[in-house]
Amino acid sequence: MVSLPALVLVGFVGGVQLLESVLDGLNVRYGASAVRDAEAWVREALDVNDPEEMLAYQRSKTTLSGLQSWVGVAILLAVVVSGLYGDIARQLSATGLPSIAQGVVLLAGAVLTGRVLSAPFDAYETFVVEERFGFNNQTVALWVRDLVVSTVVALAFGGVIAGAVLLAVDALPTLWPVAGWATVVGFSLLLMVVYPRVIAPLFNDFDPVDDGALREAVEDVFARAGFDCEQIYEMDASRRSSHSNAYFVGFGRAKRVVLFDTLVDQMDRAAIQAVLAHELAHWKKAHIWKQVAASAIQMGVVFGFLWWVTTSQWVYAAFELPSETYAALGIGLLYATPVLTLTAPLTNRLSLAHEREADDFAAETMGGAAEMTRALETLAGENLSNPFPHPAYAAFNLTHPPIPERIRRLREQYGDEDVGSGVGAEDGSDVDVPPAT
Predict the structure, then answer these.
(1) Which of 5, 126, 247, 361 could connect to 318 by a Cys-Cys bridge, CB 3.0–4.6 Å?
(2) Which residues are catalytic?
(3) Full residue range of the structural domain in which residue 394 is found
């Protein structure tokens, strides 16, 4: 007979997944209606020749992602509710291995299982969806290599973190949540240094921008922003995809701004400068540290909840678990994950504020909104991004404001002489988000 806590878990996890599916459906329908209403702007400003292709891409991505999520949730709940999870935990407990080793083995099994289950969906996305819309540049051999390497990295780093937390559980029975929290936060900081120098180069080549016209443009925007020019890299993203982007990562000597080579090819120098200024704002405005602080608070709440779960006897009885803390931790994480999803509208607010602040910094650095506006239009058009997400979907899923909102806001605050191809253009392509349909 299925226990009440197991039924609650099924209802909670399944209910949140259902909410996400409803939001996905709303987003696809809302975006389709809005794109068709603003078709002239989409064609002219975003340079999308066929808006229906943009909509088809969004439908394909959303459908595949939703199917993958439901399959994952169904398998996960079946494993837990059927008692298979408890059986595995009891078998590990009977091996005589140290508790820490048992927990690491359980985590490794979960990681490997997840990779095996997601591989067919990832392959379909790469070689069918991305290929159909002209984004994929990957070979099968490169895709397999990435899968193997990323799995090894996940196992290595996941094993280290799990081992450290379980060591704290063993050594500090009453204070392990504090020690575990400190371990996770410390590892997050360490990863910000390790990722750009060790992990990212396993997948891509990063060439310093040292000379030529791009270097001159970089030096110019650094001078305008009041920085010394250093740690700017161009990444060979085109080896895998024609999608374009840029990002800021790290701190101290490990900090760097990375420009995709696809972005460099798709944008003019002034637009690239605006993107660079936007990324520099995350550095100048200490956004990384603010995000770390917010994440630390969130992790503190999670560890407090996990402590309550692992010290409550109901979890062991309800799921037929051995008296091993790591077994209860797994169940606790299943309850905690949907809560993080439901609180995403709150946690995303900080990121949204940071992106708006970075847009402002870019406009101020470039002396107006024209360059940043052009960059945003290029990013949306080249990536076939949905420019009009449903407000509810955006609240739960987006860490960046919608492109039209960002463009409209920039022009209202900083002006833009180049109004003929953007928000509020006289061709009637008003990009105000249309009402929900």
Answers:
(1) 5
(2) 279, 359
(3) 1-437
